[in-house]
Write a structure and sequence with these properties.
Elements (H helix, E strand, L loop, with lengths): L29 E8 L5 E7 L10 E7 L27 E6 L5 H10 L4 E5 L19 H4 L6 E4 L1 H12 L4 E6 L11 E7 L7 H22 L3 E7 L12 H6 E2 L4 E2 L13 H20 L5 H12 L9 H10 L4 H8 L9 H10 L13 E4 L2 E2 L6 H9 L30 E2 L4 E2 L1 E4 L2 E4 L3 E2 L2 E4 L7 E2 L14 E4 L2 E4 L15 E2 L7 E2 L14 E6 L2 E6 L3 E4 L4 E4 L7 H15 L5 H11 L2 H10 L10 H4 L5
Helix pairs in contact: 4-7, 6-7, 6-9, 7-8
The structure holds 2-acetamido-2-deoxy-beta-D-glucopyranose (NAG) (3 copies).
InterPro entries: cEGF, EGF-like_Ca-bd_dom, EGF_Ca-bd_CS, PA_dom_sf, PA_domain, VSR_TRX
Protein name: EGF-like calcium-binding domain-containing protein
Family: Belongs to the VSR (BP-80) family.
């Protein structure tokens, strides 16, 4: 029952139709299994993804590993042994290790799932390379429960299984992490995927699953395709009739183009109902529908065609034929002449280019093995493992996008968990400003400092983010000190330059946590002239002069309001000026130079107002022509 390496697919079908070689190339798809404790067996190994249940593509799961004392092969229900694997609320989920052998892989997983576990590890019973645990062949009673398996499963090598069992029986608590994040390559922002399908709708459970999947998945597939997120290609398997048998009755009824392209008889009864070649022809039509739709840049119309055809033209109602197909084609606005041309002549003893390409594509390339079973889904050239169901498949496709490029449909709660909701994903956040560095992606979360109000935050994203670059002071004052009192606001944030926070004039401090008012009066910073009287204010000071004097803030001094008297330092300048004037023409240039370098515009203004400059012969013109009262 366990299919190793080679998959037979011609169930009930004549073995005449072989795929060219008996050794089909089969690739075991893997995920990784990490033991996180105990210390002595820590490490990461590969495990093989089971081809049923729901692998958590793009995700990972941590759990405590249990090896049951009884029913170790899990072939019986654990109820009989009164064993339950349900984990207590808040504790890690239980993973169960079981042994290979005696019954179907799927049955083991089903029994463990029924007992409440979250994942199953199956230990191989012989030393060999990893194999894929497959679903049983059709007709087996197991198909009843197989669709209800929802937990992931993985096969591990015998020696690794022995190591785990030894640790568990030795009393260690074994914690493991199953990781599917790298199970699908995710190189860029577009996922290429292909479905190997079949138009046959009467092959039992497998066909029902496939038809159901097409219907369920159509909506999402079309959204992804229209948005340019994916490039989907449908494929169809055909077999060929060995040369010696091309003229036999069987080959004639199941093949077209003289034994080149064949499909099994739908009812496996050569004398009644539809024949294999009817299936080949409809498959060919569906391929051509895709090609013609793709040529007009509407590849998603294929999904409409196959689902409509399924509903309107079922074999059961004897409508599985060209007439019915043509009505569907026309209703979708497809060019039926082009489709007819693409299909060619099924009776010709010649290759059909479309089907020939399909047969060539069946052979594995690169990371993908040969396609020998239906249905087969390939995502980014890796074969999908797991059940063919909407949610499970969407996970695998979503896992194929480079982080942060996944479409919105991948970030809904039924596809992935938003890791930013739990403790903000361990990323930086500023709750007050409603800012976070956590960005949810399909494969987990990333911590990246946000862009808010046009200002890019900078930092490691985990413990630290702060506004950077121009405009940073707009956001929370750039993390610098700021305060306002009585309608006056001060901020220590500097928008430009390397220094981010610096206390404004009138304050001292680190600029980040605090800036304290400088008491200019007591610290003798200003307003210290004999006539001055000083009063400190927040961020500044007030200075008044006694008597008739006027305080000039820029020069921190008092001057007379009258025209004749100038006090303090102005008197000194006056004396110098007189001296220089008296020194005569020889010193004129020196005088002029000194005058200019001493006097800024304010001094000039003041002097023009308070000094009798117009009586001086040597008054420079530019001083005398302004502000004359
Ligand atoms: C599987 O699930 C379906 C729907 O939930 C249910 O009707 C059916 O009985 C289940 N089958 C088994 C074998 O548990
Ligand atoms: C569909 O069209 C795209 C681009 O137009 C092309 O790259 C791709 O090969 C086509 N697929 C098939 C199967 O013709
Ligand atoms: C915080 O921001 C997010 C999106 O940026 C928004 O959806 C949410 O409503 C905001 N919350 C508050 C409390 O402002």
């Amino acid at each position: 029952m366990e299919l190793r390496g080679f998959h037979r697919l011609l169930q009930g079908f004549m073995l005449l139709f072989l795929i060219g070689t008996c050794h089909a190339r089969f690739v075991v798809e893997k995920n990784s299994l990490t033991v996180t404790s105990p210390e002595k067996i820590k490490g990461t190994r590969d495990s093989a993804i089971g081809n049923f249940g729901v692998p958590k593509y793009g995700g990972s799961m941590a759990g405590v590993l249990v090896y049951p004392k009884e029913n170790q092969k899990a072939c019986k229900s654990f109820d009989e042994f009164r064993i339950s694997f349900k984990s207590k609320p808040g504790s890690l989920p239980t993973f169960v290790l079981v042994d290979r052998g005696d019954c179907l892989f799927a049955l083991k997983v089903w029994n463990v799932q029924q007992a409440g576990a979250s994942a199953v590890l199956v230990a191989d019973d012989i030393e060999e390379a990893l194999i894929t645990m497959d679903t049983p062949e059709e007709g087996h009673s197991s198909v009843k429960y197989i669709e209800n398996i929802t937990i992931p499963s993985a096969l591990i090598e015998k020696t690794f299984g022995d190591t785990l069992k030894k640790a568990i029986s030795g009393g260690d608590r074994v914690n493991v992490n199953l990781d599917w994040r790298e199970a699908v390559p995710h190189p860029d922002d577009r996922v290429e995927y292909e479905l190997w399908t079949n138009s046959n709708d009467e092959c039992g459970v497998k066909c029902d699953i496939l038809m159901g999947f097409l219907k369920d998945f159509k909506g999402i597939a079309q959204v992804l395709e229209k948005g340019g997120y994916t490039q989907f290609t449908p494929h169809y398997i055909t077999w060929y009739c060995p040369g010696a048998f091309t003229l036999s009755r069987q080959c004639k009824s199941q093949c077209i183009n003289h034994g080149r392209y064949c499909a099994p008889d739908p009812e496996q009864d050569f004398s009644s109902g539809y024949e294999g070649k009817d299936v080949v022809i409809e498959n060919l039509r569906q391929l051509c529908v895709f090609r013609v739709a793709n040529e007009t840049n509407r590849p998603w119309v294929w999904w409409d065609y196959v689902t409509d055809f399924q509903i309107r033209c079922p074999m059961k109602e004897k409508k599985y034929n060209k007439e019915c197909a043509d009505t569907v084609i026309r209703s979708l606005g497809l060019d039926d002449k082009k489709i007819k041309k693409c299909m060619g002549d099924p009776d010709a003893d010649a290759d059909n280019p479309v089907l020939k390409e399909e047969q060539e594509a069946q052979v594995g390339k690169g990371s993908r093995g040969d396609v020998t079973i239906l249905p087969t889904l390939v995502v980014n050239n890796h074969q999908y493992r797991g059940k063919l169901a909407k949610g499970a498949v969407l996970k695998a496709i979503c896992a194929g996008f480079e982080e942060t490029t996944e479409p919105a449909v991948c970030l809904t709660s039924d596809v992935e968990t938003n890791e930013c909701l739990d403790n903000n994903g361990g990323c930086w956040q500023d709750k007050a400003a409603n800012l976070t560095a956590c960005k949810d992606t399909f494969r987990g979360r990333i911590c990246k400092c946000p862009l808010a109000n046009g200002v890019q935050f900078k930092g490691d994203g985990y413990s630290h983010c702060e506004p950077g670059g121009p405009g940073r002071c707009r956001i929370n004052n750039g993390g610098c000190w700021h305060e306002s009192r009585h309608g006056i606001a001060y901020s220590a944030c500097l928008d430009e330059g390397d220094v981010k926070c610096k206390c404004p004039p009138g304050f001292k401090g680190d600029g980040v946590n605090s800036c304290q008012d400088i008491d200019e009066c007591n610290e003798k910073k200003a307003c210290q002239c004999p006539e001055c009287s000083c009063k400190d204010t927040w961020g500044s000071y007030e200075c008044t002069c006694s008597g008739d004097l006027l305080y000039i803030r820029e020069h921190d001094t008092c001057i007379s309001k009258t025209r004749t008297e100038v006090r303090s330092s102005w008197a000194a300048i006056w004396v110098i000026l007189i001296g220089l004037a008296m020194a005569g023409g020889g010193t004129y240039l020196v005088y002029k130079y000194q005058l200019r370098s001493y006097m800024d515009s304010e001094i000039r203004a003041i002097m023009a107002q308070y000094m009798p400059l117009d009586s001086q012969a040597e008054v420079p013109n530019h001083l005398s022509d302004s502000n004359r009262a």
